Amino acid sequence: ALWHLACAHLELLEADDECVGRDAEGGCTLEAIQVRAGRSAGPGESDDANETGNETLGTVYAMFTYGAVATSKSPLEDLSQPSRNFRGLRCYTETILAATRQADIAAIFETDLYHARVPTLALHWKKDSDYFPGEGRPDLPKHVEGRHGDIDHHDMRHYIDRLSHLHLNHVDVSKKDPFNLGTQFAYMAWGAYEKQKYWVSHKDVTMEQLIKKHLPHWRLVEHVQQDTLEAVDNLWLVQNSQSLDCLLAFEGTHTFEEFFRNLEGSNGGYCGFSDVHHGYADKLYWLMKLSMPKLRSSLSKCNKVMCTGHSLGGSLCEVFAACANSGRTSDEHYQIQQFSKQTPELMEPIHQKAFSRNVRA
């Protein structure tokens, strides 16, 4: 919602996803996706935690982001993997016109920054989307000509609708990995704002209600509200009662003070990575310093840890995952967000806390 307020002077374009054929960039073919899926483990299938002494250090198994802003002058890498590519999915919405592409304004916001190396999905409506596996396309959408930002594309309903009807090469793949997880976790990225107006019923829905309705076998096990001066931020941990995997959801921009974080640019480092967006690095530092002591015990009980977020939340997830998987145990940033991996344990469900807007925790 903040993007709409901050950028209200921009004209919204009314257009359908019209495209004559597929462009030269294309996506990968469905056959290639299936071959890759057959030889690559999905969430819940392998363990990449690092061992230090008698402690097994936790890592982020996969990230799922939606309309995230780019984070670094060089694409962040997963240093725990030989390929240096993250597992998961980075999604952004895009409308194809005759002479241009209208993309989510957040995904195209930073002029000189790149996204992480993670499979990338450009979501189109009522036609084939473009999917780039492996390292994805850290340069899209900003660094390729013919893309322009559009405010309305940032709305999470577009992500959920398009993921729910996802087609690649004229085949419905919405129920296939990793896209089915992308749809489920989109509700968590949306629900991370505590309460939303559901566009179908026009009624308010909470994070707890979204989990119950759209994530079978998942339960809310931690909810932390942290005052970072700019806002009272919410961090959520949900666990799958069958696999014992966990998903950490970061809340996106919801105050004007937080919006200006997006304008700070890349003039700092985080966890040994240079030229990381200073606003996100600083935001994550304080979130981890103040909130991780409340989350660390629960994270250690997870089989796998994944993260998600929309907008700013997606960017925080990206930087958090890069740091967690760096193995840089002597780094201050790593130390404040470090968590261990112990024997997985089913945690008790909790209810979400009272609505935090305009209330300092």
Automatic annotation (TrEMBL):
One family from Pfam that matches here is Lipase_3
Q: Which SUPFAM superfamilies match?
A: alpha/beta-Hydrolases
Domain (Fungal lipase-type): give its ranges.
248-358
The domain of life is: Eukaryota
Query: What is the protein's given name?
Result: Lipase_3 domain-containing protein
Could you tell me which species this protein originates from?
Durusdinium trenchii
